[in-house]
Design a protein that fits this description.
The structure is a homodimer.
Chain A (H helix, E strand, L loop, with lengths): L1 H7 L2 E2 H10 L2 H4 L4 H13 L3 E7 L7 E6 L1 H16 L4 H8 L8 H30 L10 H29 L22
Antiparallel strand pairs in A: 1-3, 2-3
Helix pairs in contact in A: 2-4, 7-8
Chain A binds a DNA duplex (30 and 30 nucleotides) through helix 2 and helix 4.
Chain lengths: ~200, ~200
Amino acid sequence: MLGVVRMRGEAHGYQVRQDLQLWAADRWANVKPGSIYHALRKLAADDLLQEVATQDSDIGPERVVYRITEHGEGEFFFLLHKAISDTETGPAMFNAALPFITTLDRGNLIFLLRNRIQQTAAAAGQTRLLLNQSIAPMEGGQGKPAHVREMFTYWLVTVEAELTWLKDFVTRLEAGEYALADDGADAFGNPPAQPS
Amino acid sequence: MLGVVRMRGEAHGYQVRQDLQLWAADRWANVKPGSIYHALRKLAADDLLQEVATQDSDIGPERVVYRITEHGEGEFFFLLHKAISDTETGPAMFNAALPFITTLDRGNLIFLLRNRIQQTAAAAGQTRLLLNQSIAPMEGGQGKPAHVREMFTYWLVTVEAELTWLKDFVTRLEAGEYALADDGADAFGNPPAQPS
DNA sequence: CTCCCGCTAGTCAAACTTGACTAGCTACAA
DNA sequence: TTGTAGCTAGTCAAGTTTGACTAGCGGGAG
């Protein structure tokens, strides 16, 4: 939500709603339209957003317009870094971060992704270990039923696919793909230039 | 939750909590310990579980013991079928279903998985289509920024990995892997035989 | 023997999420 | 000209989730 408001410079709830719908955010994240207004008010209460104006729109109910604060700007980048480099925040966060990668410098982004690659590789290794453990039939009997192995192989397959993609992505970034924050002014995801 | 109680025959909240922790359910599902007791009570209110007894345990607070009802048994299998065959319920549901696959007959299970394979293949095809669309540079300008493509390739990679795994799994099942419901009495995941 | 740690089993208020609803406006057909 | 379908923007009560707490007991250290 922070990122969406930031990207637009100013936004009201309905705009955020539309952007999120466009990105199919209700699929991979837990954000249905009803949640948005509460979330915006909470972000405003936490001083990450500020209410800029309450326009009495001519084509509908009045709209509250928000803008990101300096504090929110910091939080945005903090969350963005964490969502990319830290696998524990989950795939939903990573997905949410993807639209904003162009707000980072290339070197920084690659560094964060390398971090993620390391963690993912470690997770794959651990899963493989658990898998080998459960291949050897246990004497304990009921302790670890066979289907748990199935969960492990399922995880392993998806984790390895993710790993492959991540490595490929870094390679492409290193080759210069995408206009990132340090490549010029018109990178996507940054707020439009403010007149004044 | 239904499945866990069913599997044990009888269970109180803390047992469920431990089983879910063992399966790392708080990772792939949205189930933290605090939710369990409310969920159990709700299932009981919906007549899917019934309170069997309120034991005054000697090693702690008193425990409420639950057992699945006939109605709950029906719901369990309904949900299980849907979680396996229907991709729209999401990967969390599929993960939750895996521990209980051995409560189904082999033919039935394979049929459900084939269904899932079809849906997954369709999803992969559609994603590939979206990807091709976004490779062609749009004249609309800002409409679909480049990073959206990145999301698509990310999805595609994981979906294809899942597809491979699903096909392999079916092959193994066809070759006779796992003791399923129609292979004998001692399949995992069924309630223990009741004395009396 | 006593103290403290950690386990068992669960409660609870505060926060969050959501589907259903409202109310004004535009555009277009009959 | 009327009606009606659909969009805009948001509210709200009902339900759900959660992190922080409680309170009893066993067992090992000193």
